[in-house]
Amino acid sequence: MEHSSRAVACVDLAPLEEILQRYPREEPSLIQVLQDVQRAYHYLPCEVLERVARELGVPLSKVFQVSTFYRAFSLTPKGKVVIKVCTGTACHIRGAPQIIDEVHRRLGIGPGETTADLGFTLETVNCVGACAMAPVVIVNDRYHGGVRPASVGDYLEPKE
Amino acid sequence: MRIASRQHFEEAVAAARDRREARTRDIWVCCGTGCLANGSAAVAEAFRSRIEAEGLQTGLGVYTKTTGCHGFCQRGPLVVIQPEGILYTRVQARDVPEILEKTIGRGEVVERLLYRDPNTRTPVARYEEIPFYRHQTRIAMRNIGRLDPGDLDDALALGAYGGLVRALFEKTPEEVIEEVRKAGLRGRGGAGFSTARKWAAARKARGDRKFVLCNGDEGDPGAFKDRSILEGDPHSVLEGMIIGAYAVGAHEGYIYVRDEYPLAVVHVQKAIEDARERGLLGRDILGSGFDFDLRVSRGGGAFVCGESSALMRSIEGKVGEPRAKYIHASDRGLFDLPTVLNNVETWADVGAILTHGGEWFAAYGTAKSRGTKAFSLVGKVKNTGLIELPMGESLRRIIFDIGGGILKDRPFKAVQTGGPSGGCLPADRLDLPVDYEVLTENGSMMGSGGMIVMDDRTCMVDVARYFLKFLSEESCGKCVPCREGLRQMLHIFDDLCEGRGRPGDIERIERLARGMQLGSLCELGKSAPNPVLSTLRYFRDEYEAHIDRKACPAGICRTLTTYRIIEDPCTGCHQCTKVCPVEAIEGRPRQKHRILPEKCISCGSCYDVCPENCIEFLPRGGREEAIHGHADH
Questions:
Q1: I need a surface site. Which of B40, B288, B616, B624 has the fewest CB within 10 A?
Q2: What is the pLDDT of residue A7?
């Protein structure tokens, strides 16, 4: 996995510089910095992690430990469209598993996977707290409620 | 402007009240996560631009306010017209001109937007008359939906920080703790530990650097009360934390918020900035000489970080691994310094307790569980949403009076409380009073207030497997009983749900469960078997059906279930063909339809939409007969 991110030539470090300005250079800032990195780059590029380790004075091994422990972080690039299927209890009993199966049937990717052309990533999320609209699917930060397997196709058409 | 004394504060409150009362007509548009997803931002914008274009604000004193969650998320976007208190549901931007013309202009009600009682179909105009709201008593959520969370003055007008003023200027820290003790306040995050005892221990702890923390890592799937409080009334949490800090002698604090709650993070950050600017946070708060400041720490999406010691490691920038409980956070918590950690809802209660007194709070609830409790009522229930009511109310009242009963009037099967550490309670427990002790005695727990209602189309073995899968992904992996116990148990459940169950599986599950309860390091592992044990306790027959007959009585486990259309009542309405994702249903409009077994993936979509109830499910073993039955025709 790390190799594939290394292969991406010359990651632009300018967004990282800006992120580092926001926090004190100490270990407690690590998770906050990584979150902003994840948001800016949509994954955690290896070069960026090395730089973060140096700047915060945290061993690279610890940076990797944190990067792989938390669900919010990914070491591999994500697709242009990120489909998050909420798998909270309310969504589960109202049919979230059928939604995941349907995405898999259409795109051939399971939770945590990205299509080969980097078009789509499927993720599951442990409850977004919008249980009243279950089952919930979030496509690029837009919430959709009451999703049925038959309506999954609508979200897979690239509209923007 | 900075408020520098108690007198200043009273003046600011009076000014804020005057401003609030000057608004003769106020239109409240709910902008909680649920309503936003349904398009409430566009509704608020439509009101604003239309009111401005027509000069209604200067002419008639009509204002628009974006508020936090009203709790009735299922009916969103919600709009409340004040002072009449008319509630409009499922409002879209295109409805705005009509509302302004009829309701604001002529005092008429737009009937088609009113809430209708799901059982009697009669429209209800006023907010307070709707059963969903009528049966509630709100303390922690006292101001949610009534104020703009981004407007500190609006909060001041409704009494925010009044409890803080009483604490800082009328009470010693010990007296504050005494007030909380009188209230009988217990932790609202799950375990129900006495808040006053926690504070007293931290007060006594040595050292001048101490912390107060807010646990907003609401990880229980199906619970969202903390999200709504942080989004809808962040000042109530800030007020509680400043009071707590004063009581224990802390000057620094953190609010730990789930990464999955982006709106809550934004609202809390804004509230902290506003409070700091007005002298409610920072040095010399309100001129009292007391210093305290707050920071937000965003979680990384790990369920285990809701556990106190894991949460503290996470704030330190480390992985969230819990540590053994013999080290008390009140002695050595965050950065190994004395720390008090309370749940969002607990903090939100504190301000009200200091304002009205501990005895006032203790008058609600049961002997051991005082006050009110927030729940998110979700699942297969008609009125889903967020509610708060005194401890000790029955499950029946919550699910049937407030929740309006089960969706499509199907039979009630169980209610799951307490998240992955809790359990499922069956129909014969519906009259139990809900408090900490009763739930625990019956194999469940309070947890963070999620109540997931289940009907006969919920497979209890599948529900237990769901929680095991959840926990096996979320176990931090530090201790073996939790990590391996969950994994092995999940293997057995996969077998049960996919038709490979063997005699002796139930006993194997029970043995593993005992090992995990005894040997796990933290509560995540110790309580992990609860969903399994409670479903075994109340629904053992479903487990036996999966093992002995390879059948799923609820028709949910796909490998065990097959569907067919009973031809007689089928009217060919085509509803089922529209929802079938794999085009496995054939039949012309108004003619009888048929499910093609070779294409059908047993998702059950057709079953759930059929208006004639003419689709049935059978155990997979019965499938051969059904197919042959058709072939014979």
A1: B624
A2: 47
CB pairs under 8 A between A and B: 172
Q: Is the CB of B360 inside 8 Å of chain A's CB atoms? A: no
From start to end of B313-357, where are the E strands? Answer: 339-343
Task: Look at chain A and report how many structural domains it folds into.
Answer: 2
pLDDT digits (tens, 9 = 90+) for A51-83: 999 999 999 999 999 999 998 899 999 898 999
The reported pTM is 0.92
The CATH number of the domain holding residue A64 is: 1.10.10
Distance CA B188, CA B449 (A): 8
B128 close to A (CB below 8 A): no
CB contact residues (below 8 A), chain B span 296-315, against chain A: 297-303, 314-315
Instruction: State whether CATH 3.90.380.10 applies to domain B152-362.
Output: no
Residues carrying CATH 3.40.50.11540, chain B: 152-362
The region of weakest confidence among B131-140, B161-170, B337-346, B531-540 is: B131-140
Q: How far apart are CA B328 and CA B341, in angstroms?
A: 11
Note the pLDDT tens digit of each residue in B18-50.
998 888 889 999 998 888 888 899 999 999 999
| pLDDT, tens digit, 9 for 90 and up, residues B578-589 | 889 888 999 888
Per the structure, the complete domain to which residue A36 belongs is given by: 2-69
Chain A residues whose beta carbon lies within 8 Å of the beta carbon of residue B419? 89
CATH assignment of B558-632, given 3.40.50.300, 3.30.70.20, 3.40.1280.10, 1.10.1060.10? 3.30.70.20
Please give the pLDDT value at position B629.
33
ipTM of the complex: 0.87
Q: Which residues pair with B379 in a beta bridge?
A: B453
pLDDT of residue B512: 97
- Please, which residues have CB within 8 angstroms of residue B593's CB and are 6 or more apart in sequence? B565, B570, B572, B574, B576, B577, B585, B586, B587
Interface contact B605-A65, CB threshold 8 A: no
B25-82+86-125 under CATH 1.10.10.10, yes or no: no
Angle CA(B58)–CA(B63)–CA(B64) in degrees, nearest 5? Answer: 145
Q: Mutate which of A29, A31, A73 to disrupt the B interface (most B C-beta within 10 Å)?
A: A31
> Which of A69, A100, A117 is the endpoint of a domain?
A69
Q: What is chain A's alpha carbon radius of gyration, rounded to the nearest angstrom?
A: 17
